[in-house]
Amino acid sequence: MARIAVIGGDGIGPEVVGAGVRVLEAAARADSSLELEFERFPWGCEHYLKHGRMMPEDALETLSSFDAIYLGAVGWPSVPDHVSLWGLLLPIRRGFDQYVNLRPVRLLRGVGSPLAGRAQPDLLVVRENTEGEYSDAGGRLHRGTPHEIAVQESVFTRRGVERIVRYAYERARERRGLLTGATKSNGISVTMPFFDEIFREVGEEFPEVEASLMHADALAARLVLDPAAFDVIVGSNLLGDILSEITAAVCGAIGIAPSANLDPTGEHPSLFEPIHGSAPDIAGRGVANPAGAIWAASLMLDHLGHGEAASRVLGALEETLAGGVRTPDLGGDAGTEEVTRAVVRRLLF
Ligand code: NAI
């Protein structure tokens, strides 16, 4: 029995994870070896407005007894984004040492891509998830004066870089044996050369992987022009964040892309989510694309050791989209409910 903590969050978050939970329940009904138990937690911006916190003080303790966390999205216009992010998502990622942010990218059948007619991408972006540029070390001086200064430090540790780079080499070895490290050592002259050095050092343990470093700006352009050239890409927290968003866009729409926040040691639960945000512009209208959340649910099943069920879920989603049941962001006219029902039907019958 796998116990899953469900945090819908804000905006379309609860709509899309609601869809994902129904799909997971259908997958479990179709497969007696798959036993899942869900517990929902109403945390997010509404919780913040009522209680002054995005989630209770003992939230991590509560979550630590679960096998995985399934999250929708957090953020709402009435709460500053840095408050919502630092109050929920980042404490979970850091508190549970989920140092790998994994974003698989593949063009699903039935999804149009700006790259139509060219070789299609099938790649993994591995983003460092606990340190780097997203640190809260820094501050502002002389606020409100013409001399105002803002300083923010990037924090790169040998342990942090080694472990993410090693994880990426391992994934590349299992796939097509090609690894690209995203760097920016031409402009960022201390931390990036440090990253590059460790990338090369760890590479000595993986002679079978063809590894190279590429400046993130050139890499971004190449991803748009020729994404099929890549297999695994590894980057720091900021560079990995931007590059994975580009790859998501190249694959059709932000609403279909999933991500996993992993503690590969298994000591803490890992977290699975669609990459999109709470989409206030379409929240409550029943048109949110549940594909990213359903693909994230498939990643979660895979992580929990149910690889076959994971493939079935992704297959059912892909057949649904290829069959023309698509939300408006993909050029269709189906709602969240219709897409969800179609995926559930394919799993059950
Ligand atoms: P967003 O991803 O919420 O929306 C960007 C655009 O994509 C919007 O036009 C939206 O309608 C569309 N979109 C997103 N997901 C969709 C889906 N599943 N189906 C159809 N259309 C979809 O990004 P935005 O507007 O920058 O952020 C809104 C809020 O979400 C902010 O508060 C932000 O901080 C938060 N956010 C949270 C994330 C998380 O929880 N991991 C990630 C990104 C943003």
UniProtKB/TrEMBL annotation:
Its EC number is 1.1.1.93. SMART domains: Iso_dh. Its cofactor is Mg(2+); Mn(2+). It holds the Pfam family Iso_dh. GO terms for molecular function: metal ion binding; NAD binding; tartrate dehydrogenase activity. Residues 3-343 form the Isopropylmalate dehydrogenase-like domain. SUPFAM superfamilies: Isocitrate/Isopropylmalate dehydrogenase-like. It comes from the Bacteria. Keywords: Manganese, Metal-binding, NAD, Oxidoreductase. PANTHER family: D-MALATE DEHYDROGENASE [DECARBOXYLATING]. NCBIfam families: PRK08194.1, TTC. Belongs to the isocitrate and isopropylmalate dehydrogenases family. This is Tartrate dehydrogenase. It comes from Rubrobacter xylanophilus (strain DSM 9941 / JCM 11954 / NBRC 16129 / PRD-1).
